[in-house]
Amino acid sequence: MAGGGVTSATDRHGNTQFTPDEVRAGSEVARCYGSLVTALSRVVDNVVADIGHGNLLDEGTARYIVERGVWLTPKLVTYDTMASNNHADFLPPDNQPKN
Questions:
Q1: Please, are residues 65 and 52 in contact by the beta-carbon 8 Å criterion?
Q2: Which residues pair with 71 in a beta bridge?
């Protein structure tokens, strides 16, 4: 994962959490273990195999990931579930805008 995601208390959209070299190194180690790396679109250039969620995906990025052979796993049920009244208090107020 390239970042802490919606539940991370310390990052906002657009924060850089790993440098390109760190992402490439993590991707290489994962492949050595026969595993895949999933990440958000900003790390497509750094040898990830799958973008998790993709909720901020625009058409240009979608075309780019197709050209690079990267998979997209939307996980849309996550957003529906987190937005429901049943889970209204799951995220602290500072994290709710990231969902």
A1: no
A2: 50
